[in-house]
Amino acid sequence: AGHGFDGLVMRLDAMGEATWEYTYGTGGWDFLYDVEVLTDGFVAVGGTYRAGTAGEQAWVVRLDTEGNLLWERILGGEDATEARSVRRVAGDSLVTVGSWGLPDGSRDAFLAKFDLDGNQLWHTTLSEVGDNVGYSVAELSDGAYALGGFSTLVAGRSMLLAKVGSTGVPQWVNHIDGGTGEWEGRSIREDYSGGLVLSGITT
Q1: Percent of the chain, pLDDT > 70?
Q2: Beta strand pairing status for 18-24 and 30-38?
Q3: Residue 132 forms beta bridges with which residues?
Q4: Exposure string for 5-20, b = 16+ CB within 10 A, e = fewer
Q5: Average of pLDDT values for 81-96?
Q6: Is the dihedral of CA 128, 141, 46, 120 positive or negative?
Q7: Amino acid 180: pLDDT
Q8: What is the pLDDT of residue 3?
């Protein structure tokens, strides 16, 4: 592209050969971190630096089956706002999670829900002291959503685990660490017993 970074989405056949690839974005820096498959296309999420905005903003991109841009949405108001994961959920909707930049330079974890036309249905943040970032989201069997990420509420970094109801109301927040080191949750799923599985990293 000859400037900064562009978001990239590539579609491949069953043998791993590219059938198409397109870049998306502007003259600044644009990043895509996750993609979800829909029956009539795809949705990808990341972060974008756009002229006239206060640094990085969360970015949601909706594509058709051929990679054509159908719509995009930009969320945020302060720097360090980005979307890290997206899932299609019940009711033909999309849920994305990430970090929401605040005026003091810290971040809240956020979840936002959209319909497939790009209308935002709700948005919620998990506000705690320090940095709180959502990396992964899973729809649960009871219609709620689980978020995995990290928090600096306690010394160092701890795994952040939260449950948010189907209407965007937080139900509980938990922090997991081993007492020492840095801990981050990177991917979360519901298991067959209705419990949660969280993977990530630790030092």
Answers
A1: 97
A2: unpaired
A3: 151
A4: bbbebebeeeeeeeee
A5: 97
A6: negative
A7: 81
A8: 62
Question: CA 34, 48, 61, 8 torsion: positive or negative?
Answer: negative
Q: Where are the beta strands (DSSP E) in 25-55?
A: 30-38, 41-49
- Give yes or no for a contact between 189 and 197, defined as CB atoms under 8 angstroms apart: yes
Beta bridge partners of 49: 56
Residue pair 178/157 in contact by the 8 Å Cβ criterion: no
Reference 149, options 85, 203, 104, 78; nearest CA is 85
| pLDDT 10s digits, 7-18 | 999 999 999 999
- The pLDDT value recorded for residue 128 is 86
Residues 37, 55: Cα–Cα separation, whole Å: 29
Question: What global pTM score does this model have?
Answer: 0.94
Q: Distances in Å between the alpha carbon of 74 and those of 25, 55, 187?
A: 12, 12, 24
Q: What's the whole-number average pLDDT of the chain?
A: 94
> Is residue 144 helix, strand or coil?
coil
Residue 76 makes CB contacts below 8 A (sequence gap 6+) with 53, 56, 57, 58, 100, 101
Residue 100 pairs with which residues in a beta bridge?
Answer: 108
Residue matched to tokens 């974890």: 109
Q: pLDDT tens-digit profile of 118-133?
A: 999 999 999 888 899 9
Contact between 145 and 169 under an 8 Å Cβ cutoff? The reply is no
The whole-number pLDDT of residue 78 equals 87
| Residues linked to residue 136 through DSSP beta bridges, in sequence order | 148
